[in-house]
Structures are given as structure tokens and as C-alpha cells.
Amino acid sequence: MRIPLAPFATARHPASMDPILTLLASLPGAAVSQPFGEGVDVWKVGGRIFATRAADSGALCVKTESLDTAEMLIATGLARRAPYFHKSWVQLPPDTAPEESRHRIEASYRLIRAALPRKLQASLAP
Predict the structure, then answer these.
(1) What is the DSSP string of the chain?
(2) Is 123 a domain residue?
(3) Among 26, 44, 82, 90, which has the minimal tally of Cβ within 10 Å of its Cβ?
(4) How many folded domains does the chain comprise?
């Protein structure tokens, strides 16, 4: 089920009050759905997941550049291993510093977008 961004932002989570949702919704081509039910928002670009967010805990899962990056974030206590994802994904707790969350979301988005077919990449706003 695909959820339009405007009703999503106003009905479920006021985007103006949540900087993470505002950022996720602002990324070119970003779309949110709930394929696993109402408990998890799945953010995709070009049909591929770049972030998930648990509604109950607020935990955010994102892809990292490498296994080394994921292991470093886990070792320093900034993240945990993301359940159900490849080892290059991490789960950031809801109390993660806003600038760290922003950096990790944008990095995950760039990684996933760069892996899309060129034609699809070209169809997205820069």
C-alpha cells in the first residue's frame, strides 16, 4: 500500500513537527509505504528501500557505505545491527543527534539512488 506524502505527513505524523519525516519526504523521488503493516514506514527511491522507521519506537534503519562503516557505528554505540537487513544496514535509536540522523539518511539515499538504473536516476530531480 502506497501512502501519499501530504496526507501521510498531516494525518499520521505532522511533518512540520518531525524533522526526520520532513527530510525523508523532501528527498527527490522518495515515497513511503507500509508493506509490513502499520507499524513500519518504509521509504523508497526508485522502488528500493533507503530507510525504514518503526512507528512505536522511532528507530530508524539506514544503509551504510560499507560493512566497516556499519561495524564502526555499532562499536561506538551510535547504532545497532538493523534486524532483518544486510550487515551494511544499521538501526539508529530515536535519540540520535539530528545532524547524525540527517547525515545517515542522506548517505543511505545517495547509495540507493546511485545503484538505480541510469534512466531512472535521470528521471529524478537532482
Answers:
(1) -EE-HHHIIIIIS-GGG-HHHHHHHHSTTEEEE-TT-TTEEEEEETTEEEEEEETTT--EEEE-S-HHHHHHHHHTTS-EEPTTS-TTEEEE-TTS-HHHHHHHHHHHHHHHHHTS-HHHHHHS--
(2) no
(3) 26
(4) 1
20 is a domain residue? yes
- In this structure, is residue 7 part of a structural domain? yes
What gap in Å lies between CA 82 and CA 86, rounded to an integer? Answer: 8
Q: What is the CATH number of the domain that holds 81?
A: 3.90.1150.30
Per-residue confidence of the chain (126 residues) as pLDDT tens digits?
A: 344 443 344 344 444 578 899 999 999 999 999 998 888 999 999 999 999 999 888 899 999 999 999 999 999 999 999 999 999 999 999 999 999 999 999 999 999 999 999 999 888 888
Q: The domain containing residue 33 runs over which residues?
A: 2-116
